[in-house]
Sequence to fold (204 residues):
Amino acid sequence: MHAQTMKMETQELSFEKETTFGVSWQKLMMWIFIVGDALLFAGLLAGYGFVRLASPSWPNQSEVFHLELIGVMTFVLISSSATMAAAVGAAQQGKRSQATKFILFTIIGGLIFMGMQAYEWSSLIGEGASLTANPWGVPLFGAAFFAITGFHGSHVLSGLIILAIVAIRNSSGRSTAAGVELAGLYWHFVDLVWVFVFTLFYLI
Fold:
């Protein structure tokens, strides 16, 4: 049993060793995932832009969305990025309880965002919008909106699950500062993607 534990610890340490790029294998793989996911989001948003430019009767944002609600959603998500940065800083200083506290604040922010997005979705669906219908004009609007915001929402949900696991592990002393940092990288990426979604759907 002791030998097996030593073997697992050795494998974990080797996994955290730096690559030739000066970062750990864990961080390198996270960056590879983020770049790949960013390209996927870029493709979706570019497709949305093309469809929108090709559709002269695209609905006006102020007629469709509750922009005040969207503004609050965006503020909450960006604020959660700040609390995540604070969690990473605390973890790097060895302040586990403080790091866990900021991770929990981040989770609360993410849950508020998801709740507000669920409310927005239910409001639009109640007005007749769906993947195949749009009471304000071009049917493709509904498909593009629900597909892209839903895809982003699935990333927020994944991030919340990751953060919950990291918070539990960190509070029990089983998570490292590197683990908190990796979770932070993913969460910052999700927040950054929302800035682009927010800009293209609600502002332009």
Observations:
- The mean pLDDT is 88.
- Helices lie at 2-15, 25-53, 61-64, 67-92, 96-126, 140-171, 177-203.
- The radius of gyration is 20 Å.
- The chain has one domain: 24-203.
